[in-house]
Design goal:
Layout lengths: L4 H21 L4 E3 L16 H12 L1 E7 L5 H12 L4 E5 L4 H13 L7 H8 L3 H11 L6 H6 L4 H11 L3 E4 L2 E6 L2 E10 L6 H21 L4 E6 H35 L2 H25 L2 E3 H7 L2 H17 L7 H27 L4 H23 L1 H4 L11 H11 L2 H21 L14 H14 L6 E7 L2 H20 L5 E3 L6 H24 L16 H5 L2 H6 L3 E4 L2 E9 L4 H8 L5 E4 L1 H60 L6 H21 L6 H20 L7 H23 L6
Helix pairs in contact: 1-11, 3-9, 6-21, 9-10, 10-11, 10-12, 10-13, 10-27, 11-13, 11-15, 12-15, 13-14, 13-15, 13-27, 14-15, 14-25, 14-26, 17-27, 18-25, 20-24, 25-26, 25-28, 26-28, 27-28
Length: about 750
């Protein structure tokens, strides 16, 4: 690329445009802090993905607050309810059940009793044993059965419906509040529904702070009360706080240390300013691409993007090192002309690495790839097009630590050292790879706040549910069809309970109109049988006909039952959907197999599905790494000829295996993100080989250049080992170790040239 002022001016103007775009766009951009955003959405064609997304967002809007009040004082419960209800971001608080609602629920249970018949009662009706049970109850004298109730509901369907509903839950209503009795103590449960789904960072902070303030107000006044909370929003707030700390403290330390290092090596401020400009151009370009292509940015991805600072500094550092050690009357433009080919090859290699990542079907990883592609490209172009103009009057600077440089070059030139290093790395890699284990559990990606985890575990025990609940999603084109499919699913689940595949489930108890019609025939025959048996006992009673009580969609949505099951239902754009909550799933495979014949049903186990997705993607990365090794082989052969190109490729593989060994020895396990770092090890490592072999006559200068590049990259990546996010820690360990080994191997590559 010849130096033409037009290219440089266009380059500067494009930078100004991108900077202006970011200034306008960034204030309105949504920042996501959830680790779950880093993993793919798992669904299939059986249920529309939008329905799954809607239910997932609805779950994210739900938070639970549980209180055991001091001295069992209900005034404390009332105050907490009032505090929670007054929070601006809360749409409603479920947990207070007034007398009107209880009366309405009892009334609707009576009116809809023929639609609430379960399979057990249906079997009794078919076996004609229901009449005997009623007669036994009638003469037991303990049920308080009145003549009016008996006349309107001779088979006692209402009582049985109430019993079945109570049997399926451990909740009770005590003095108008929803309670759970645990270890002979009453705990009061409030369910908070947020107004907004997918709260942005600022709203999440405010929402959680308001809930914490409402809780803290109670605990300050009544310190012996115990309050527990649970919800995705609390973990998101905690993850956001950790990510912000990483960006604030680690990012600041990284920038300061990098530029102090550059100043220490060159002992003049000009290289620091140029390096800062190179990084700035790169970061602005990377940010522009991400903001232009996406509506939100994941904070954890931004944390991983800190690693690119060291990479983009490589180009400026290498040019500055050669420029500050130029010989004779060489101009800055002559220096860049000599350097631009290896610089562009190195940048191209790095861009290829990220282009491969861009192919992955994960939006946050696409963000990472686009950011790095933009940063690498613009930093390299800045060095080629702009830095020569800013380095025209630079003065020659002596290389630092000349004695140490000579000693290392002398050591690296010895075949004995080279062979020993290679053999040592091979042995260490063999041991480490044997110890390395893969674990694709998404729960291991981030260290959970221990206090939140403890409260979450307690609430799970209190409610007798699993921390990670499983669901079945059923969709249909009409409410009637939805109820019919619900019946089919219930029949399957009842059999699965018998085989211990699951313990229980929760779903809408209503039957479809088709089933109601069939049940009505059974009710009529059983009512007649009851009349006949009572007549033989000289009790001639007249009963009302059950045929009049047909439940339909309109009645349901106007009933108290709709309020009970509202969060489980979705009616939108002509589609009806329902979530069925499963408890204590022991065999998900059997559930999937049982649901296979039923259309538009999906078994959803986020933990299991995401684990499988991670496994698939990690295995896919293995093929990507192999593909990139082929790319490196081709580029190395073009640049270094066949013999050294092949050896450089072998050295790249050795850097990978050693990096994985470091991961194993650190106690961490291989996952998607640590394996992603392998692609970067390959891209950065081959840069060192290209740079060091570019000018054999100035090995000291090349050594300083790539050593400085290594140190800057280590400062930006290595410091991420102290991140609170486990995914970033593993990423940093693999990348840091890999590039150190790549550096050492690059310096001995020349020994095998002959």
């Amino acid at each position: 690329m010849e130096h033409n002022k037009v290219y440089s001016v266009v380059f500067i103007l494009s930078f100004i445009f991108m900077l202006g775009f970011l200034v306008v766009k960034l204030p309105t951009l949504n920042f996501d802090s959830s680790i779950l955003s880093l993993i793919p959405k798992v669904t299939d064609d059986k249920v529309d993905e939008k329905i799954v997304d809607d239910f997932t967002k609805r779950l994210d809007k739900i938070s639970l607050v549980v209180i055991k009040p001091q001295d069992n004082n209900l005034e404390i419960v009332a105050k907490l309810y009032q505090n929670l209800s007054s929070i601006e971001g809360v749409d409603k608080v479920i947990g207070k059940v007034d007398n009107n609602f209880q009366h309405k629920l009892q009334e609707d249970t009576f009116n809809f009793k023929t639609a609430l018949i379960n399979q057990d009662l249906r079997e009794k009706l078919k076996g004609k044993t229901a009449a005997n049970e009623v007669i036994t109850a009638l003469y037991s004298g303990v049920l308080g059965l009145g003549a009016k109730e008996f006349e309107n509901d001779p088979l006692l369907l209402t009582r049985k419906a109430i019993f079945n509903l109570a049997k399926d839950t451990n909740f009770k209503v005590k003095q108008n509040y929803l309670t759970v009795n645990f270890n002979h103590e009453d705990y009061y449960l409030f369910t908070l529904i947020a107004k907004a789904s997918g709260l942005n960072l600022e709203h999440t902070d405010n929402y959680v702070a308001a809930i914490d303030n409402a809780i803290e107000t109670i605990l300050l006044e009544y310190p012996e009360s115990k309050i527990y909370k649970r919800g995705t929003v609390f973990y998101s707030k905690d993850a956001a706080k950790a990510s912000k700390n990483d960006l604030t403290y680690l990012g600041t330390c990284t920038v300061l240390l990098v530029f102090l290092l550059i100043f220490a090596i060159f002992r003049t401020l000009n290289p620091v300013v140029l390096a800062l400009l190179s990084v700035t151009f790169g970061l602005v370009a990377g940010s522009f691409l991400v903001v232009f292509c996406f509506n939100s940015i994941n904070l954890i991805v931004i944390g991983m993007c800190l690693s690119i600072i060291g990479v983009v500094l490589d180009y400026s550092t290498y040019y500055l090192t050669l420029r500050l050690n130029f010989s004779g009357k060489e101009t800055s433009f002559e220096t860049i002309k000599r350097m631009q080919k290896p610089l562009i090859i190195a940048a191209t290699t790095d861009v290829i690495a990220y282009l491969i990542i861009l192919l992955f079907p994960l939006e946050p990883l696409k963000q990472l790839a686009l950011f790095c592609i933009g940063a690498i490209s613009y930093s390299c172009l800045f060095v080629v097009l702009v830095e020569p103009y800013l380095c025209q009057n630079t003065k020659k600077v002596a290389l630092p630590l000349p004695t140490l440089l000579n000693l290392y070059l002398k050591l690296a030139s010895k075949k004995t050292f080279s062979n020993t290093l290679i053999i040592g790395l091979v042995v260490i890699s063999a041991i480490g790879l044997f110890k390395l284990k893969a674990n694709d559990d998404p729960a291991l990606l981030q260290t959970l706040n221990p206090t939140l985890k403890q409260q979450d575990d307690f609430i799970s025990k209190l409610l007798n549910t699993q921390n990670s609940q499983k669901f079945i999603i059923v969709s249909a084109t009409s409410f009637e069809d939805l109820l019919f499919k619900n019946e089919l699913v219930k029949a399957k689940l009842d059999k699965l309970i018998e085989t211990k595949a699951i313990k229980s489930y929760k779903t809408i108890p209503f039957n479809s109109q088709k089933t109601q019609q069939q049940d009505l025939e059974l009710l009529q025959s059983n009512t007649k049988e009851l009349q006949d048996k009572l007549s033989k006992m000289h009790l001639n009673l007249t009963f009302k006909d059950y045929q009049e009580q047909i439940f339909d969609e309109v009645k349901f949505f106007d009933s108290a039952y709709f309020k009970l099951y509202e969060q489980m239902l979705l009616v939108k754009n002509g589609t009806c959907a329902l979530t069925i909550i499963l408890n204590e799933v022991n065999n998900g495979a059997l559930i999937k197999e049982a649901l296979e014949p039923i259309e538009n049903t999906l078994y959803l186990d986020r933990h299991e599905d995401l684990t499988h997705a991670f496994t698939y993607l990690r295995e896919l990365i293995s093929f990507v790494v192999l593909s990139f090794i082929v790319v490196i082989f081709v580029i190395s052969c073009i640049r270094l000829k066949l013999r050294l190109g092949l050896l450089a490729t072998v050295f790249s593989i050795l850097a990978l295996t050693t990096a994985l060994t470091a991961l194993a020895f650190s106690g961490l396990q291989l996952n998607l993100f640590s394996q992603l770092a392998l692609i970067l090890v390959l891209g950065i490592g081959i840069n060192y080989a290209i740079f060091f072999t570019n000018n054999k006559e100035i090995e000291k200068v090349s050594l300083v250049a790539i050593a400085t590049a290594l140190l800057t990259t280590l400062l930006t990546i290595g410091i991420l080992i102290f991140s609170s996010v486990a995914a970033i820690q593993g990423f940093a360990i693999v990348l840091s170790t890999g590039i150190i080994i790549a550096f050492l191997l690059a310096t001995i590559l020349k020994n095998y040239a002959k």
